[in-house]
Design brief:
single chain, disordered N terminus, 79% helix
Length: 208
């Protein structure tokens, strides 16, 4: 029989991990949609939509970069470092990638402006920058889910999971959250139309 304390810890862990994985999925989906859109533009299949491109970058920069990554640094990674030295090297690597990711976002914004300004190589430079960001992101999230979360399962205590769950529960995803506004819901539908069908069902709340 599971004790109340253990059940509480499991619940906190479940909530924390569910939010982390959902935010990973949301970020990965937006980046995949961005890559798909740029690929279609590069092939001449669709007309460029700079407003949509800018909206995608805005989402990535304002939610995952400003909320998700700092919460990982300040709560998940910090708690794990306090409990064990195991995984210190990968945590150092991941925190370095958080810094690099923010720098790459700044570069993405610059290359989008160059593209919008009519630079001859603007589109392909922007697409290449997006692909580089996507590669970093994919490897980064894989390490978090296959290395960090199992380490956290092994070493974190109930109080750690309670604090982590509470911190991530404060996040409000403006695009995929339940309280997304009308403009963001329209953007979400446009993004859903750019990704594989298996992801569309995950991104559309019931009733949409």
């Amino acid at each position: 029989m599971v004790s109340a304390d253990k059940h509480g810890a499991a619940t906190s862990r479940h909530r924390a991990v569910a939010v982390i994985q959902a935010e990973h999925r949301a970020l990965g989906t937006v980046v995949a949609a961005l890559q798909r859109l740029l690929s279609d533009v590069c092939q001449g299949l669709v007309e460029p939509d700079c407003r949509l491109l800018a909206a995608m970058l805005y989402y990535i920069e304002t939610f995952p970069e400003r909320q998700h990554h700092p919460k990982e640094d300040q709560h998940l990674f910090k708690a794990l470092r306090a409990r064990t030295r195991e995984g210190s090297a990968v945590l150092d690597e991941l925190q370095g990638e958080h810094i690099r990711s923010a720098q790459m976002m700044a570069y993405l914004a610059q290359t989008l402006v160059r593209y919008q300004g009519g630079a001859p190589d603007g589109l392909h430079s922007f697409a290449a920058a997006v692909d580089a960001y996507a590669a970093l992101l994919g490897d980064h999230m894989r390490k978090e889910e296959t290395v960090v979360l199992p380490l956290a399962d092994a070493h974190l205590k109930e109080s750690d999971w309670d604090a982590i769950a509470a911190a991530f529960a404060e996040n409000r995803d403006p695009l995929f959250g339940e309280d997304a506004g009308q403009e963001m819901r329209r953007l979400r539908r446009r993004i859903a139309n750019l990704v594989p069908r298996k992801l569309q069902a995950l991104l559309r709340p019931e009733g949409e």
